Amino acid sequence: MQSPQGAKLSFDFGFVIPLQAEARPLLDTLKNRKHRDGSRTIYTGLFHNKKVSLIISGCGKIKSASATQYLIDGYPARTYIHYGTAGALSDKLNIGDIVIATQVIEHDVVELFPKKVPPPVHKIFTERLKRQLKGFHGSPLVWGSILSGDEDIITAKRKKM
Known about the structure:
- The protein is α/β, with parallel strands linked by helices.
- The chain has two domains: about 1-85, Rossmann fold; about 85-160, no CATH class.
- Helices cover about 25% and strands about 35% of the residues.
- The chain has helices at about 20-30, 60-75, 125-135, 155-160; strands at about 10-15, 30-35, 40-45, 50-55, 75-80, 100-105, 120-125, 140-150.
- Strands 2-3-4-1-5 form a five-stranded mixed sheet, with helices on both faces.
- A hairpin with a 3-residue loop joins strand 2 and strand 3 (about 40-45).
- The radius of gyration is 17 Å and the shape is globular.
- The termini are far apart.
- The relative contact order is 0.17.
């Protein structure tokens, strides 16, 4: 696979980050950082001796999916990580915790159809991911379910559903 500039590239990790402010801590620690402009802004460099690419996607599923595909096509990596801030339904999580998905549940699908159906659950193959992330980050990682949806959970009643 080749980059948009024609050079053959291979990365350990590709980061998709919605906001520049969320990317700043990672960008500040990226060694040998290069900035590439094409139709998208891409950063590449070394993080904990791993070759990484990073794209600022903008907010929302469509922008995230588009940015992820852009990295896959032009900056191929072994693993892609969506990195950014999120809320938490669990009282066991704290600000700053890093959550790695063991499964992703599309929580708002039950609201979209008249017939009640269970939300789709996408299992993640965590053993390979655990091996790839070993020693990558100094902070402890929390493994668990991540909810995804277009609906913000802003009330205690909805949180319990």
